[in-house]
Q: What sequence folds into this?
């Protein structure tokens, strides 16, 4: 019996069973409700795409630094960790990453630093991101992109803009 005959002979209730669906070809990815790559994250977060893209990168860099003992290209690990944290918070505000709760926004500590300190923090954070990239982008997994996507889509700013559109479409 061929696969086609098996599919035709299967009971109606099994029609949606994954075993009977054709497998995706090499150039097709199976559908996922969550973004799996940075590009998918950027596309699916709409107006927050660039902010989500950068936030996911910084999240991975920060996680990598906390687990690293002697990463290549980084001289002072503690200072670099602090710089990455400062720049991450600064870029969240600068790029408009949606806050998790409706609360008055606080300026990042970055704004209270002198110009020289800001430049040093930016330089150390950029070096850390470059080292992370050279190390193969550790911790950049579909779970990370999913987490950032969930943060964006559960924020009050997202819900105000997009929840009403969904409910209007469902009622029509």
A:
């Amino acid at each position: 019996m061929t696969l086609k005959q098996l599919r035709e002979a299967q009971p109606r209730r099994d029609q949606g069973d994954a075993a009977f669906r054709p497998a995706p070809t090499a150039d097709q990815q199976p559908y996922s409700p969550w973004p799996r790559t940075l590009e998918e994250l950027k596309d699916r977060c709409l107006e927050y795409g660039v902010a989500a893209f950068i936030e996911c990168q910084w999240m991975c860099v920060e996680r990598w630094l906390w687990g690293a003992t002697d990463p290549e290209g980084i001289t002072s690990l503690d200072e670099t960790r602090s710089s990455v944290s400062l720049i991450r918070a600064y870029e969240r505000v600068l790029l408009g990453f949606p806050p998790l709760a409706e609360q008055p926004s606080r300026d990042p500590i970055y704004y209270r630093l002198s110009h020289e300190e800001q430049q040093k923090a930016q330089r150390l954070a950029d070096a850390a991101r470059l080292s992370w990239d050279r190390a193969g982008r550790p911790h950049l997994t579909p779970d990370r992109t999913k987490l950032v996507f969930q943060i964006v889509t559960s924020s009050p700013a997202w819900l105000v803009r997009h929840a009403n559109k969904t409910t209007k479409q469902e009622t029509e």
